[in-house]
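If you are new to this repository, start here. Below is one unmodified record pulled from the training split, so you can see the exact layout before writing a loader.
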Amino acid sequence: MTTDEELVARSRGGDLDSFNQLVLRWERPIYALAYRVIGREEDARDVAQDAFLRAFRSLHGFKGQAKFSSWLYRITLNLCRDWMRRQRRAPFAQAPEGIDLIELATESTPAESIEDLVSRKELGRAVATAMSMLPEEQRTAIILKEYHGLTFQEIADLQGCPLSTVKTRLYQGLTVLRRQLEQAGVESIFGVERPRAVVRSFRSPQNDRT
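And here is the target side for that same chain:
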């Protein structure tokens, strides 16, 4: 498969089809990132489209010092911050109408009971609400690490902070998230050593590359 770097090089040379391939490759992860940060489906779609437009216009400035995906994530996060600043609001912790976060996280099995399905739906709502209450830096660190698989160093580069700060934000965010979920009455799903298992229950309304 053609690498991102090869497609970027061709795009900078004027090959629009190569850039379209980059869009097709990364549109779901970018939309998912925007949705998880701002929590509104239509606005997340607008942010994602704006991110690709800005990336296309700025390709001449991309020096390849970081991965293309990391560069694209940075553009998206900056646009999300701009959106929240304009709206002067915190992320909206609610799934779009007719879409259940938890159902998109795992597929139900034929043997799944109604009680189990209801439990998963309740968990999805609880995680979405708890995530929205975290400070932006902690929430973003969790999103990038747990959902998008970025390394600590990549997150540090994106957030413009030391590696140790990223680790602290992730630990503190997961700790607070666990405490909030326990207070919401879902403590029975936690293992003592695996608070992150619950974090993965919060998904975007579309699948992404994680």
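Two things worth knowing about this chain: The mean pLDDT is 76. The radius of gyration is 18 Å.
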